[in-house]
Amino acid sequence: MGSTYQSMGEAKGKQHAKPSGHLLRHARYAFMKAAIYCRLSEEDKNKQTPAADSESIQNQKSMLQNFALEQGWEVYRIYSDDDYTGSDRKRPEFNRLLEDAKMRKFEIVLCKTQSRFTRELELVEKYIHGLFPIWGIRFISIVDNADTANRGNKKSRQINGLVNEWYLEDMSESIKSVLNDKRKKGIHIGAFALYGYKKDPDQKGHLIIDEEAAAVVREVFTLFSQGYGKTAIARLLNDRNIPNPTEYKRIHGLRYQQPKMKNSALWKYSAIANMLNNEIYIGNMVQGKYGSISYKTRQNKPRPQSEWYRVEGTHEPIIERELWNSVQTLLAQRTKPFSTGEIGLFAGKAKCANCGYTMRSSKSRNKHYLQCSNRHVSKDACIGSFISVEKLEIAVTTELNRLSAKYLDKEALQKQIRFAGHSEKKIEHLKTEISLHQKRSAEYAKCLRELYVDKVRGVISENDYLSFSKDFSMEKDRLIRITANYQQQLNKLTGSIPSNNNYGQQIEAYTSPRHLTREMVEKLIDSITIGKRIPGTAEVPVEIHWNF
Questions:
Q1: Rounded Cα–Cα distance for residues 249 and 245 (Å)
Q2: Which of 487, 488, 474 is nearest to 445 (CA)?
């Protein structure tokens, strides 16, 4: 099914013959520039040195360079991503190639296989079948005979894309199954051991005590049992210049990647709190607190405690059970009575103007305050920003009303703007999903029809037809079921929205508010920086960064 190429030498040997249309078409590629793209999966560890290209990458380059030479093409550049998966959209060389392609710096993209370029069907359609033809770029993968100059193998490229997509999903599920099985057995699978432990060099997945860090862990538990607060403990450790867990990893040469921030080596309230609650310190392995959103992204989200994997007695404890129980009793007693589980009005939004860290909430005499989380952890950590929630709310509403009066025409807003609200946003999302799934379902139906025609013409075998048509039919049916489910949700939501919404009152609530809600803060405010009170006054510098 692949294209047939003719070398320059062969063309020269037939110079007395009248060239055919086929030869004329392919002769124009002889002096074109080709971009070579190579990729090696991160699972492959076949390297002599960490900085060297792997043997597989070298083989890909050699194969593709020789192929380009045979065709008489000039190699514009070799783009090589080592240790990246085919589903990673952040591959640096891959994205550099796409930028250069958009600028028409070459006419051909050459890969070993289509899967080296991408394993996602969405990107196959977007670039290979969509943007590349617009940019005048031909895509070729030599092993699986993909060539956009050959219209006859477009379906083959689409099938390759589907197979690669299924491979990604299957591989993700297989890896997840293996990891979950290890979690159930209490085998440690993390990239790094918890502070206080290190990986056992003689037994994979087993933790042994790191005495240097373990001594700090024991001291933290002991101090808390003696009545010291979490902030006080953090300050004691910082005063003695003991590095926090993140800095400890860096000092000991572990490749721990985390953004470097001011005071990032300091112990904080949160680090002490997390340590005092972690059962790993009594010999129990607890894993799976976070789970991936999708096999297409590396983003994680918290999982409910009922889904965690907890196995007792997997390694030597650092903290004795009696001390652990004493600390847990004290933690329960110190739980703040006003902590109802509700998110604070400015939670995660208020930041210290001096050190940049998120401010913590506190309560005194039935009033809520925000203070810098570094204020008490070290004498040199921060000057200490402090403000009452009530005062900050007044400052924000005053500024919002000023902006509203200055820039907004409320009568025009009432005529032209309809507040989306949660339900209306959900409706728009459902409409988009329905349209997308209907389109994909139609594409599978079209593929099924074209497969049948190819079988009748003898382009594909009966076995291939049965195999592909079965997979296509199953996927089409799945999409139809999902679409029907979305349609039911849409019908229910549409019927629940009243037709006589008072948009004027809603607009007024947002443009001239007397009080704020958490929803308003989330929508309107990106962040708020708060400084230290100006000496001799009651004024606290507040700088609001809006989302508009």
A1: 6
A2: 474
Residues 140-174 have pLDDT tens digits of 988 877 888 887 666 665 666 566 565 556 555 66
The end-to-end CA distance of the chain, in Å, is: 54
The number of residues in the chain equals 548
What's the one-letter identity of residue 72?
A: G
Measured in degrees and rounded to the nearest 5, phi and psi for residue 531 equal: -95, -175
Cα–Cα dist 137/104, whole Å: 8
Please state which of the ranges 78-92, 102-116, 269-283, 289-303 shows the lowest mean pLDDT: 289-303
**Rounded Cα gap, residues 81 and 92, in angstroms:** 7
Please name every residue paired with 29 in a beta bridge, in sequence order, or none if there are none: none
Distances (CA, A) of 363 to 40, 350, 371: 55, 16, 11
pLDDT given at position 456: 74
529: Cβ–Cβ under 8 A, 6 or more apart, which residues? 351, 352, 353, 542, 543, 545
Q: Which region holds residue 39: left if phi is over 0, alpha if psi is between -120 and 50, else beta? A: beta
Helices (H), 103-153: 114-117, 121-123, 132-134
Closest alpha carbon to 279 in 249, 324, 246, 322: 324
Q: Can you give the three-state secondary structure of 8-74, one letter per residue?
A: HHHHHHCCCCCCCHHHHHHHCCCCCEEEEEEEECCCCCCCCCCCCCCHHHHHHHHHHHHHHHHHCCE
User: What is the number of other CB atoms lying within 10 angstroms of the CB of residue 311?
Assistant: 15
